Amino acid sequence: KSGKPYLEESAFEALEKDFQEVINLLKGDKGLEKFRIEYEKLHAVMKKSHENEKRLMEKCRELNAELVVNSSKVAALTKLSKDDRGTISSMKTELEKSWKMVDTAYEKEQKAKDTINSLQEEIARLTKLVEEGSGLSQGQEYNIQDLLKLKEEITKERDQLLSEVVKLRQSLTQATEQQQDTERAKNEADQSIMQLQQEIHLHQNEASREARKKEKMEKELKSILAEMDNKQAEIKNLQQHIQRNKEEQLKMEQHLKEQKILSERAGKELEQLQMKNNKLMQESEQHSVMFEEVMQDIQKKTAELKARDDEVTQMRLEISKLNKIGDVLQNKLRVAEEQKVDAGHERNTLKNEISGLERELEAAKKQAEIDKKAIGELVREKNMLSKNLVKATSATQKQINLVKLHEQTKKNLEEEIQNYKNEAQKQRKIIYQLEKERDCFINETNELKQKVLQHLKDSEIREMQICDYEKKIEESMFKLKEQQNRCEAVRTERNLYSKKLIEAKDEIAEMKKKLKTVTHQVDQLKEEITDKEAALVKAHLEHQRTEKEKESLKAELLKMKTQALETKHFIDNQEAEKIKLLKIIAEADAERLMQKKEFDQVIHERDILGSQLVRRNDEVALLYEKIKIQQSILNKGETQYQQRIEDIRLLKMEIKKLRREKGILGKSVANVEDLRQEVHHMRKELLREQTRCKVLEEELDNPLNVHRWKKLEASDPSTYELIQKIQRLQKQLISKTGEVIEKELLLQEKEKLYVELKHVLARQPGPEAAEQLQLYRHTLREKTKQLKVLSSELNMYESQSQEYKHEIEKLANELLNVKKKYLAQKRKEQQAKEKERSLTDTEPEFPRHRSDVALFTGGGFAFSRPLPKVTA
């Protein structure tokens, strides 16, 4: 696997910069402070994981280096084993050759023995012949001389063969010894290879474990980075949401301004309508005066016109009623405008409250900056303490270096003692580090206590703020209720006005019908008047003038209708404003619910802080227990250290013993030279004996002994025993040297194992690292659980907001449908009225053939039935 870390330094620095930017952005928002704390905790966890990753990478590099060294050792050993195999094969071939030489020598020896036996037989036969015969012939003497020469040659060959046999036996023993040595070396090399393979396997297992740990850490890093990305996305979403809310607020303010402008315009239009209405009233009064004059003229002539005048007066009364209704509507409009002004005042008060909250936020920010400065001062003090610590450690290091320089002048044994002292120094450093960590833990506990106290103070402040917010919410609820009551009163008044409008419209329609009937009757009367008297022509003209005035009144009525439609539009606008106000009320309700939820969240956070306090107390108790356990472990370590010192002393004793044995063996090896001298001396004696043998053989050739036919028994055991002794001693020497070599190798292996065990013990992480890892995992699990809870709450709120949006859309759609239905009904009613008008307009105004028409003659006396009275 590649030794590259998951995150390079540049990427990590970029992440640090992003983190600082995000924190600087989040510092302003008090609502996102919890999120910022979680985000900082996640960043701290990511930092720790990055440092752990670095440490693991360094460990992996060290293990890889050790693997490379071990692989090179294995390669060297494999080369040595291959070379040993080659030497073994060459030695085997040499052995085979030597065995072949031995076999040939043995065959030659057998042949020589056979020839010697045959010659001895011939000698015996010749001696018998000599004993039998008195003398020998010249041929026989020559044969005897030839035989003696042959005997000498054969004895020489036998001696050569014996020497060759001895040499071959020596070479055989040497070859067997070399073969045994090579086999031993091979076995030792195989054992070392096996050990190295086991070590490589162990290192590979460690490397795989470290790789798995690294993969786990990388996965955790990836998950943390993904969580950080999610958090950044959430921050961006929240910022966008805040911007949207601001934009919506600006839009609402613009909308309110537009509504104000529209209300002012409506007020101006109302004033114009009132002016027009007053003008119309004046004109109607003038027309009424004129009409009264005409009616007086008509009353003189007919009594029926008086009834018509009564009906006209009734119409006037109805018009006055309508004017009164208009006044009431104007008063109600004024009341609505006053309510608008009150709503504006309430909005201003809310704005003042918002500005007060913003001031409180600024005060909280200032407090946070003061806290930051205090934290910076504490960090500086910490840095100063760390610098003093570094200086102290450098001073101690200098003193240690001086002690080392003084101790280097001592002997080899003192160097070994120095190594043990260095080990003790390491142990002291470990103890010193443990004490430092203990102090760090104590400081952390104190800091945690301070933080807990600060959190308690913050919780109290927040509880006070919550009480204030509750009071404000109650006040806003009271104001909301008042606004709702006002809206309900306006609604009831609007319903009443709509009912009165409908009634007025119905009355206007009835009056129109009556007017039509009256016009028909007036036309009939006109014909009668024209038929009766020419004097009434003037009155008829005046009546036509009244008809024109009536048409002008009709036009004015149409204008009034248009004005009524305009008032309808104004009412519709007011309804839209009412809907907007209802929306604002709904938004206020939503804000109240949000504040309630925030209050619940604050309570939940307080409960969580309480539980965290309990957990922290439990963790502190656990830390104290762990400190006790570590102290007990330290005590055990001291006892084990004493035991190790005793083991070292025993090992020193064993080393001394082995050195003594080595010296004794060296002395025995020094006696080898004496043995060699003895061998040389024995060889000299052998040569003497050989010369003696030669002399004796010469004496046999030139016999001086008369009784030479007698058999003489002679043996030379001393030389053979000496040879056997030499061989035995050589074998003992070889075995002793082999044992010495084996013991030296064992010593070297033990020393190597001791050094490797030291290194392994120095590398192995203590129980603190495992405990820290467990703590980090536990905290990570808790944070992931909290994040899941927060994400579930976010999803819940989003789903609720979507549901509210859907409900708002449904209500808007329903409102639109109701409006459409209302407009459709209005259109249908207008169409029906227009149809009725068209029908009434198509009817003939002056019917020619009527049975109930009165006929007049001469002086205007009727022949037919009298006219029926028209009832209103």
How would you describe this structure to a colleague?
The chain is mainly α and 872 residues long. It has a domain at 785-841. Helix content is 91%, strand content 0%. It has 9 helices and 2 strands. It has helices spanning 9-26, 33-132, 138-301, 304-408, 412-532, 537-670, 672-701, 717-763, 767-842, and strands at 856-857, 861-862. Helix 2 runs antiparallel to helix 3, helix 3 runs antiparallel to helix 6 and helix 7 (672-701) runs antiparallel to helix 8 (717-763). 2% of the residues are buried. The model is unreliable at 1-6 and 843-872 (pLDDT under 50).
Side-by-side strand order of the widest sheet: 1-2
Low-confidence stretches: 1-6, 843-872
Number of helices: 9
Measured as a percent range, the helix fraction is over 70%
Oligomer: single chain
What order do the SSEs take from the amino end to the carboxyl end, as H and E? Answer: HHHHHHHHHEE
The helix-and-strand class reads mainly alpha
Question: Rg to the nearest angstrom?
Answer: 66 Å
Cα end-to-end separation: 111 Å
Largest sheet: 2 strands, antiparallel
**Average of pLDDT:** 73
Count of beta strands: 2
So what's the overall shape? rod-shaped
**Relative strand content:** under 5%
Protein topology:
Blueprint lengths: L8 H18 L6 H100 L5 H164 L2 H105 L3 H121 L4 H134 L1 H30 L15 H47 L3 H76 L13 E2 L3 E2 L10
Distinctive features:
rod-shaped, disordered C terminus, 9 helices, 91% helix, two-stranded antiparallel ribbon, coiled coil, CFAP58_CC, Coiled-coil domain-containing protein 147, mainly alpha, 872 residues
